[in-house]
Each structure stands twice: as C-alpha cells, then as structure tokens.
Amino acid sequence: MIMKNKILCIDDEKIVLDSLKKEFKKYFDTDYILEFAESGEEGIELARNSYVLNQDIQVIITDFMMPGMKGDEVLMKLNEYYPNSKKILLTGQASKENVIHIINNDCLYRFIDKPWDSLDLNLTLKEAISAYNKEKNLAEKRIELENAYKKLTKLDTSKSYFLSLLSHELLTPLVGIKGNTELIKLFTTNPEILESCEEIMKSEARLRGFSEIALLITRLNINQYKMNITEEPIYSIIESSIGYLNNKIKEKSMEIRVNHYDKDFIIKSDFGLITKAISMIIDNALTYTPAGKNIIIETDKNKIMISDEGSGIPEEKLATIFNMFESDKLLTHSEGYGLGLTATKLIMDTLNGELIVENKPECGVMVTMVL
Description:
Layout: E1 5-10, H1 14-27, E2 32-37, H2 40-52, E3 59-62, H3 71-78, E4 86-90, H4 96-104, E5 110-112, H5 118-186, H6 191-221, E6 229-233, H7 234-243, H8 246-251, E7 255-259, E8 266-270, H9 271-287, E9 294-300, E10 303-307, H10 339-350, E11 354-359, E12 365-370
Parallel strand pairs: 1-2, 1-3, 3-4, 4-5, 7-9
Antiparallel strand pairs: 6-8, 9-10, 10-12, 11-12
Helix pairs in contact: 2-3, 5-6, 6-10, 7-9, 9-10
C-alpha cells in the first residue's frame, strides 16, 4: 500500500485555513491528506498522533504570529518528531531575526509573505514534497547500502576465517606426513621401505605444491592477499626465483641462462608474489622441456622474458590458457598451463602488470612478464 502525501497546516485564523483548503483543492488531487490546526498546540498534537501511527508528514505550513506558541517555537518542536519534513513559514509579521533563528535551527525550508501568491505557494509546495521524497529515497538507499556493506564485511570476515582454516587443515597434516616419513628413513635400511618413503615424499611435495597454489589463487580472487611492497634489484628477484628450483634443475641436468639484465635496475613490487610467479613459469618450463635443452631468461628494464625449448602450446589453446578449468591435464604445455598460468596471471593482475604468452617461431614458448 502506497502512503499518501500528508500536509499539515497551522494558523489561528480560520479564514486563512479555509483559503488554504481552497488552494489545495484547486492544485492537488486525492493523493494528498490535508490536516488543519487552529493553534500551535493543536498542530503539535496532530503531528504527534501521525508520528505514533508511523505516518510521514512531507510538508508543514505554519503562521508565525499566533496566540500561545509562535510559529518558530512550533517548527522547532515539530522538528523533534519530523526533522526531515519541509517546513514553510507563512506570515507577514516575522522579523529577520526570527527567520534567521529558525533557519539556524534547521527548521525552515521556505519563508512566504502574506498575502501569498497562489501560483508561488502551490509551486513551492510541490517542490517541497518532491525534495522530501527524493531525500527519503536517498536515505533509504543509504540504509540499504550500509546494511549490504555490513553483510559483505561479515562475509569477508567469514571468508578470511575459512581460508585460514582451510590452509591449516590442508598444510598441517602434510607437515606430519613429511616429518614422520623422514623419521622412518632414519631408522631403516630396508630398500623397499626407503623406496616407499621416497614415493610418500614425492606425493607430499606434489600435494603441498597444489595446495599452496590453490590457496594463493583463492586469496587473490577474493582480495584476501596482503601486499608487502618493497624495492628489490631485478637480478635478486630472478636469482631467488631460480633458487627455489635448484634440485629440479640438477635432476634434469638442465641449464638456466640469464642474459642481459641490469644489476642496478630496481623493481618496486611484492617480492613474495613476483618470485612465486617467476618460479611457477620456470618450473613449468623445466617440466615440459626435454632434458639437455636450455631455459633462457632475459630482461629489458621492467620486462622479464622466459623462453624454453619445449613443444609449445597448440595455437587453439593460446586464447584460453589462463582458464584453470580449460583442460583435463593441468600445468602442461600440450594440454594448457592450468593452475600455474592461472595463478601467475592473477599475480600479475594484482601487481598491475601484464603477462604475455606466445609460441616461438622455432620451438618452445616465451612468457613475457611486464612489471
């Protein structure tokens, strides 16, 4: 049910109230409820009743000079019930000081002299009702936004807690698995048990790597990663990224050549994120580049180019390589990079950088990171 607009008129002269009734019937339709009071006290009582019934009063019109309570007193009292109502002072006897006093107390929308101009009065009334309704709608929208923000804040807190719980529940058991496996290796010389321990360690490392990447992707996607921006030489970033993969590099008897970088060039970034991104690209290249081949890293100021000598990426896959669910086999050149490139792309987006992946003319892939 739509509430009708309500207008309250207060004047101690009945002839004035009768004139206002005629004015309003002439210019306003049945969508308006009109209430009239012959004194300030009666007007306040009518307003109090409307307030109890939770009814709005859009506009209040009052005379200034009345027996008992003057118009300025009435408006200030009504302001306690209806601070947002548009209040019009209709009189020819209020002094400048009285009007200023009402304005300073945020109680006056408009001052109109008696005798009033009919067209001016009714135009003012319509503008007052329109202004009131607009302000009310804005206030309601603001409350909706505040409530939505509170819900989002609560949801954000819940997501943070869930991520912490997920991280703990995923990674803590892996610590136990790794620790106990290493302990078993110390107390046995049985080759079969040692071989089983090695398989457990490989599985633990694989699950740990997947869990860390999945958690990182989740944090980046929901803006839960806390950035730590520092200034680092580009050579330090590259060397740290390679350092994480030393064992894998030795296992595959491969060489990573770093060419053309300026040791004095400084990158301002999140050191942990950028080294993680570079490591994931190099790791992928190590996995799918044949043994004995090379991986080359070059820099050009804020660009890092990493190229391998693998089989490359099918051209039809290049447009969708950042989609983690694009292929059944994740983290492969032949079937799509999967989580590795998804995470790297998210990292570069978070750092306001750019990631470009393209096949080289001869063979292999070149990944360009624009920092």
